[in-house]
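ZP: hey, is the EPU complex queued? I don't see it on the tracker
AM: it wasn't, my bad. submitting now with these inputs:
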Amino acid sequence: MTKYVIHGGKPLYGEIDISGAKNAAVAIIPAALLVDGVCRIENLPQISDVTLLLNILQELGADVRTVNRTTVDVDCSHIRNARVPEELARKIRASYYLIGALLGRFGSAEVPPPGGCDFGGRPIDQHIKGFVAMGASVDVRGGYIHAKTAKGRMTGTQIYLDIVSVGATMNIMLAAVLADGLTIIENAAKEPHIVDLANFLNSMGAEIMGAGTDVIKIRGVERLTGGAYSIIPDQIEAGTYMAAVAATGGEVLIKNVIPKHLECITAKLLEMGVDVEELDDAVLVRRTGKLTRTNVKTLPYPGFPTDMQPQIAAVLCLAEGTSVITEGVWDNRFRYVDEFRRMGAQIQVDGKIAVIEGVEKFTGARIQACDLRAGAAMVIAGLAAQGTTEIGHIHHIERGYEDIVRKLSGVGADIRVVVTPDEDKQAQVG
Ligand code: EPU
């Protein structure tokens, strides 16, 4: 078993560089399927979700060349295969973007149902509604989603999303860029990674207007040509380190960020008594005094991001008074609460609401990451805790955080990766 061992209670001081955005990268890599030529993708985060998607493109027949640590050249011109291999695709949620991209490129796609973090039901009915409106038939058989258009090309149309969905918005954009005619997505999601995907596709020759608002218009073009594109910094990675400084105290300059994307997180930290200074492409986060309580409700962008909910909960556990968190996006995103309780937190959950009574401190414990952001929140709790925290199931965390141990060690955290083969055996027996 590989785990993180954290000796907590040390304030953080120094600088952290933020990597490229995971949730932009996992859409932009499949988007390369639509490009007839070489596209250079820069500022890719080095995380397992990115590696998996690049491997899937290779399995489909793409030529993928590593240029440097964060840059790859992808050439999908010669791909003829629209069936995605099962084993790789099931490990990742974002494999659903392969449906939109393959439909856009070939008018057909065969993709296994997506994997990813478990927050209760994660339907993709809005994606499918979009594909069907654009002329595809979609059915599930033999463990695969089969999508196909009779005429070999998607047809532009008007699609109203019943729910503001990041995935459906981006998937329909992918299916629409090479479609015949104009596609209009109404009630679209507005997250920074939606704008980033649109910018990537437009830089390759697409005609997408309105990304970042709730009406997106996509005029289909005949082909996309190659080019180079640099992915935006990761809003949630930055927010996670901001929350870590809030929990431990100290002062950290978080570099290579777009401060505007962080405003929803900054606003809450300010309410809690944390100093956040916005610079051009960095934020300086400082916490010296006590943390004060607040309430948080997660919402689609520009609301407070659900992907920061567990991390802000870790900070609120240490704030004076009673805080209330309302999860407004997912049905079941409080699965980490039992692990926090083992560390001394006082939290009651009723459905989508968590009530937190602040405590003086967390105490170290042996806990297990249950999903990506919950795992990051456990790291934050461990950094702030008195004593030693051991976190298992860290593969969840490494799906989405590049070099988290190195980045935190660089600002003074005592965190190590420990491999214990014996425990593996015990786990198998037990
Ligand atoms: N929904 C439906 N039907 C659909 C699609 C979504 O009912 O067809 C519902 C979902 O059940 C959920 C809500 O709509 O209640 C929003 O889901 P959305 O489609 O926006 O989520 P997603 O695209 O599956 C992405 C991120 C998640 C992030 C959410 C919300 C990726 C790969 N995943 O998921 O990121 O929580 O948007 O912002 O981009 C993470 O990074 O840790 C993560 C889970």
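AM: back. Confidence is low (pLDDT under 50) at residues 424-430.
ZP: great, adding it to the tracker
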